[in-house]
Structure formats: C-alpha cells, structure tokens
Design brief:
two-stranded antiparallel sheet; alpha/beta; 312 residues; 17% strand
C-alpha cells in the first residue's frame, strides 16, 4: 500500500484506510465481532495504517474493536476519532464535554492519545473558528498536551471546508466526496496550500458505486431512507457511471481510483462488513484510472448532478 503525506503534519497515511462505522454494527446488519477483528487484522496485513472511527459507531463498539485489534501496533498506525456529545437524543458540542468524551475514546481504544480528533459534523455555524473560539482553543490545548496530534472537522459542503480553512488552525478535514458528489472539490487546492490533510468519506456513495445495488434493490438498513424517486434516479446514474468504467475494472475499484486521482486527497476510507470487502477495497490502490476516464467522471457530475445534487 502506498503512503501519502497527511498535509504538512508529518504523518504519512495509507492511500486507502478503513472506515470502521460498519464493524460489528447492528445498524448495518452485522454483529460478528470475530469477523470485525479479522477485518482489522487483514487490513494491517494489506498495508493499511489509517483507521477512522467515532464514539457513536455501534454505541462505542467500533472503538473497542479497534482498541483490541490495534493495541499491539499502536505506534505504527494512525487513529482518527471524533467528538460530539449526545444528551436527550440531541448532539451537543459544548467545550466542557470534549475531555470527558475523549477520555472515553481513550479507554475504548486502549491508548492515551489519538492522532486526529474531528468535530463530528457540527452545525455549520459551530465550525467557524470565530464563533467557536473556546472550542478550538481547547483542541489546541489538547494538542499541546500530546493527547491529540492534530484536529479538524468532519463536514459535507465546500462552504464548510472553506470556512474551517479561513477561521481555524485545523490540519484535518473529513470530506464527503465521490464520483456522484463532487461539490467539495473546488476547495481541495486551498486545503493543500494550507497543509491540511483530507480524508474522503462515503467514497462508494453508501454502496451504490460498489456495483452491488443495480436494478430495483430494496434496503433494510440505514439506507432505507431513500424515496422511490431517489432510488430510481440513483439507478439511472449508476448505469451511466458503469458505462465509463474501463473493461476489466470493477465499479468499486473505479470509484476509489477516481477519489485517489485527486492529488490533494491524503486517504480514502471505505467501510467493510467482511474481510473480502476490505481486501477488495485495498486492491483498488494497485491501479490508476487514465486521465480521460477521470475527466469523463467529472463530466458526468457536471452534466447530470451539479445543478440538482443527490440527497444522501
């Protein structure tokens, strides 16, 4: 697995990391902890050194499984987790909760520091460093104390990334980007110029770009949120994307290779329910798409989606 620099932080990360939301997570229809630990072990063997999680994934189960699976190699891997506080079903980003939530992550991850701590999709106004000066000051303190190496925000829109770049010292952002969602891309160059590492989430568009859900597929997990109209449009777009994929390349590999064709991206974090899925994701890094194919995927976005974005 090739490594890429994580901005100008001095960290180097595997081009493809492991998104750990699905690890033994009943919300995704899986509950096998042994399989989850095998996913972590096989990821390490494949050269993956970047693992993305959050306290809320599986009610803490994701962090616990990563803690168990990564304990023996802790100094050799990059762990990214997140901060938000839940009370009464609502999220709260009050600065007083940062340390207690982080300490909980430390306990589950069996570590005394995390490499990257992200604000987990806070309301847009709270991403602003001028509005949330106290919160970002606390993150700076944690960095000075060695409890975190870098911090940033998980976010979904270009305007949010630009605001974080303009108003904070963040060196990390987890961004929503894939062949069917390219709205974020114009801000990538600014992130690179400022030394920010970019982590790409949802690279397979919740499985659509894997090629597994062509036709009239019915979802019974967290993806059952889409209306029949949205499903029909997505099916149409997937067929148009599939027509652009080179012969001999799977749709999933093409989707991941499209993300990796962006030089500003540090790592991409597809999730996996099984060992086979994880290994197949990592294999995408073995080849590259031609510039012509990448351009055709840009063109599909411009022509079919940019003016009428898909709901996620």
């Amino acid at each position: 697995m090739k490594l890429r620099p994580f901005g100008n932080t001095g960290m180097n990360v595997s081009e493809i990391g492991l998104g750990a939301w699905q690890l033994a997570n009943p919300d995704w229809g899986v509950n096998d902890k042994d399989e989850a630990l095998k996913i972590v072990q096989k990821s390490l063997e494949a050269g993956c050194n970047f693992f993305d999680t959050a306290p809320g994934y599986g009610g803490g189960r994701s962090e616990k499984l990563l803690g168990q699976g990564l304990k023996s190699v802790r100094k050799d891997v990059i762990i990214c987790t997140k901060f938000s506080h839940y009370k009464g079903g609502k999220r709260d980003f009050d600065v007083k909760h940062v340390r207690p939530v982080l300490e909980g992550s430390f306990k589950r991850l069996q570590t005394d520091y995390v490499d990257i701590l992200l604000l987990h999709n806070p309301p847009r106004e709270q991403m602003d460093g001028n509005v949330s000066a106290e919160l970002y000051a606390e993150l700076e303190k944690l960095k000075t104390e060695g409890k975190i190496r870098e911090y940033g925000v998980s976010l979904d829109w270009r305007i949010e990334l630009e605001n974080v770049l303009d108003t904070t010292k963040s060196k990390a952002a987890e961004v929503f980007f894939n062949a069917l969602y390219q709205e974020m891309m114009p801000a990538f160059s600014k992130a690179q110029e400022q030394g920010m590492g970019l982590i790409v989430k949802v690279p397979l568009d919740s499985g659509w770009l894997s090629g597994r859900y062509r036709g009239n597929h019915k979802f019974d997990d967290v993806r059952n949120r889409w209306s029949p109209e949205v499903l029909a449009r997505r099916n149409d777009l997937i067929e148009k994307f599939a027509a652009l994929v080179p012969q001999g390349t799977s749709m999933a590999h093409a989707a991941l290779q499209f993300v990796l064709a962006q030089p500003e991206v540090s790592t991409v974090i597809p999730g996996a329910k099984t060992v086979d899925q994880a290994l197949n994701n990592f294999a995408a890094a073995d080849k590259q798409l031609s510039p012509e194919v990448v351009q055709s995927m840009y063109d599909l976005w411009k022509r079919e989606i940019e003016s009428d974005p898909l709901p996620w």
